[in-house]
Amino acid sequence: MAEDSKNTTNWPDLAGALYDKLTERHAELTYDFNNVEVSVPSGAGDKPEHSVWKFNGSISIRGRNLD
User: Fold this and answer.
1) Is 36 domain-assigned?
2) Count: domains in the chain
3) Distance from CA of residue 62 to its chain's centroid?
4) What CA–CA distance (Å, rounded) separates 3 from 8?
5) Would 53 be classed as within a structural domain?
6) What is the pLDDT along the chain (67 residues), one digit of tens a residue?
7) pTM above 0.85, yes or no
8) In a domain, 14, yes or no
9) Backbone torsions φ then ψ of 48, nearest 5 degrees
């Protein structure tokens, strides 16, 4: 029996596939941040302005099927 596989070629697809798999299993992901700074662009132009977002604490993501 041939295995049907689809290779993920970019981060958004990988993240979506991982979330789908974890949702099927009712998983919970917790991310802990300590003094994390992210520079977020205001747009997609040649020289967008940036805002700095700072993170401290936890973010929990719970998955569940809505079927």
Assistant:
1) yes
2) 1
3) 13
4) 16
5) yes
6) 444 456 777 888 888 888 788 777 777 878 888 998 999 988 888 888 999 999 899 888 776 666 6
7) no
8) no
9) -70, 150
